[in-house]
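User: Just a sanity check before I run the rest of the batch. Below are the structure tokens for the first item. I only need the designed sequence back.
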């Protein structure tokens, strides 16, 4: 968690005051685009004439923007950081950047240094003075120690040899205004190559307005950007000091994707992007001339994939719910045993894996620490590994044997929406591909699935037209203290997902439950004040869900049903009905989740919550 940005530029120091385009403003604007990564305090530092000027503020980035108004630090090099606290409360002392004793070195950090206490004690004995409670501060003091005898790059290399845990760091030296250093271990870091300016950042959106040319720093690499002349030189070494090749990639995302474009919140914008991103993702994996699935990335692995006898899906949070949909699809289409594991459990559970097990990691960011560790554990056991991921070049994509990308574009809101529906799209199409390899899917069934998939984006559009009606439901139920979400089979993961969305952005307690489990306990909660959202679309479990709704109604519970268009019967039962177009059950979670996302969104808005940046959370969970 935490967001980092760094810049070294040949712009005029202080920028053009008319356009406010100096390095300081680049840092503030970049942090704004990284704020989803952490938002309890923030800081920037710039170097000019051999000295640092820094500004820090607690609270959201707007506090820092306010603090620099008319008083922006100047310089041609600088670092910025937006924090999600791990060690030490959110305060100006604990906010980054952190400085060496003599204020000659400044550092920002994303990650956790697990052995910081031992190092801190040792450094304190050597005379270093600490000004914060963070784990981070020890890194800059270690660099200071080595910088007495070594140049910047070597001092950083020697310092990080001591560190255990995870880190992405940016380092600058007051007296070396042309040297910007970055390093990473288990936390993301990219380098952006602009026009006479170079950037480092935790994530692509931070630098998209300036460049699309990036270098993805790999694990255990350190980069030194030398801006002594206008053709900046990027020198990359590994932690042992050996020179590394550097590969420049071009990012396909555009800057507009990371802006709100008139929507009040990123979350609403991202919900409304779902027809487009589901269309792009599905079309990438479909041959629309023959109505068949295609996965060129998997051709080289076809033999190994045909021999797979078990599949394990690993993920966290919303991506875990997409994995649960994947389990139903893979079991139905491929007739293989499929397990779904929380990545946080899988990595410590001594899983039984071998080369005939396919381990699939699903992750929007590709940086979730537990999911990354799970894929590495699978690799160590010689299992086949595959990632379904949204971020090109992210850590999980580097570790998995092969990656299938979702094409959701940048997802900025902390609550995941469009990433979820594209993950489900990809995992269902992958199931169809694996089923073809195993000959458990007939060409006729494949074509029919593909046709239905292609029809889905228009159906999502239709569900989105219910936005105002769903806002009215949110208004009606915004003050309840509990929500229950129930469903069966393919839609059960959406019961969990609907409850998660409601909890995380509206702070209303909500639970997702298998509809058939209600009478095993949760039914006791039901009274005439208790709303249950029941997903009861047409499928072979429809009648079963209807019985479960009837049980709730018999206890005077309130029921809001997500039902198939034209279902008259359910209107006689439920207190409210939200209709979605008909689609095969396997694809229905992509439609039924949309009203659940909107219900949580409008409830949060009506309760005055911070929708895009809910309390206590951050988007990329890069710590355990
Ligand atoms: C919830 C949410 C989280 C993420 C989870 C995994 O709305 O966004 O639960 O789904 O932290 O993140 P990724 O997919 O980046 O691995």
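Assistant: Here's the designed sequence for the first item:
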């Amino acid at each position: 968690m935490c967001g980092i940005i760094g810049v070294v530029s040949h712009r005029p120091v202080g920028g053009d005051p008319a356009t406010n385009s100096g390095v300081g403003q680049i840092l503030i604007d970049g942090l704004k685009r990284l704020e989803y990564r952490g938002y309890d305090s923030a800081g920037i530092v710039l170097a000019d004439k051999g000295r640092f000027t820094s500004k820090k503020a607690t609270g959201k980035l707007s506090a820092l923007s306010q603090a620099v108004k008319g008083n922006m630090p100047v310089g041609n090099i600088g670092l910025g950081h937006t924090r999600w606290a791990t060690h030490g409360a959110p305060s100006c002392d604990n906010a980054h950047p952190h400085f060496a004793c003599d204020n000659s070195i400044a550092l920002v950090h994303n990650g956790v240094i697990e052995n910081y206490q031992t190092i801190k004690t040792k450094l304190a004995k050597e005379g270093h003075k600490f000004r914060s409670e963070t784990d981070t501060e020890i890194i800059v003091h270690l660099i200071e120690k080595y910088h007495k005898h070594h140049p910047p790059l070597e001092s950083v290399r020697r310092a990080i040899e001591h560190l255990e845990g995870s880190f992405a760091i940016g380092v600058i030296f007051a007296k070396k205004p042309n040297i910007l250093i970055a390093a990473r271990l288990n936390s993301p870091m990219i380098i952006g190559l602009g026009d006479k300016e170079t950037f480092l950042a935790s994530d692509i959106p931070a630098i998209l307005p300036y460049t699309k040319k990036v270098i993805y720093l790999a694990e255990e690499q350190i980069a030194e950007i030398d801006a002594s002349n206008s053709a900046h030189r990027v020198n990359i070494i590994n932690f042992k000091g050996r020179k590394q090749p550097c590969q420049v990639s071009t990012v396909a995302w555009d800057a507009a994707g990371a802006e709100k474009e008139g929507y009040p919140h990123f979350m609403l914008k991202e919900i409304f992007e779902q027809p487009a991103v589901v269309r792009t993702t599905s079309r990438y994996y479909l041959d629309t001339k023959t109505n068949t699935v295609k996965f060129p990335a998997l051709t080289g692995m076809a033999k190994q994939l045909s021999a797979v006898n078990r599949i394990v899906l690993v993920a966290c949070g919303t991506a875990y719910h997409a994995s649960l949909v994947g389990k139903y699809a893979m079991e139905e289409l491929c007739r293989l045993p499929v397990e779904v594991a929380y990545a946080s459990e899988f990595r410590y559970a001594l899983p039984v894996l071998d080369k005939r097990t396919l381990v699939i990691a699903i992750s929007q960011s590709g940086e979730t620490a537990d999911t990354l560790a799970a894929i590495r554990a699978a690799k160590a056991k010689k299992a086949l590994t595959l990632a379904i991921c949204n971020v090109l070049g992210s850590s999980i994509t580097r570790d998995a044997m092969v990656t299938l990308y979702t094409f959701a574009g940048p997802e900025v809101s902390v609550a995941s929406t469009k990433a979820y529906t594209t993950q489900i799209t990809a995992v269902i199409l992958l199931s169809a591909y694996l089923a073809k390899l195993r000959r458990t899917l007939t060409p006729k069934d494949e074509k029919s699935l593909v046709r239905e998939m292609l029809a889905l984006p228009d159906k999502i559009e239709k569900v989105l037209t219910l936005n105002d009606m769903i806002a009215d439901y949110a208004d009606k139920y915004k003050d309840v203290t509990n929500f229950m979400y129930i469903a069966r089979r393919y839609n059960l993961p959406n019961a969990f997902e609907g409850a998660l969305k409601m909890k995380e952005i509206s702070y209303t307690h909500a639970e997702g439950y298998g509809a058939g489990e209600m009478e095993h306990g949760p039914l006791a909660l039901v009274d005439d004040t208790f709303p249950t959202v029941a997903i009861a679309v047409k499928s072979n479990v429809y009648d079963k869900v209807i019985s479960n709704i009837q049980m709730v109604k018999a206890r005077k519970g309130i029921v809001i049903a997500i039902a198939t268009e034209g279902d008259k019967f359910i209107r006689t039962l439920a207190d409210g009905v939200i209709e979605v177009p008909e689609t095969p059950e396997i694809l229905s979670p992509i439609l039924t989740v949309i009203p659940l996302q909107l219900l949580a969104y409008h409830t949060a808005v009506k309760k005055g919550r911070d929708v895009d940046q809910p309390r206590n959370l951050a988007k990329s969970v890069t710590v355990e």
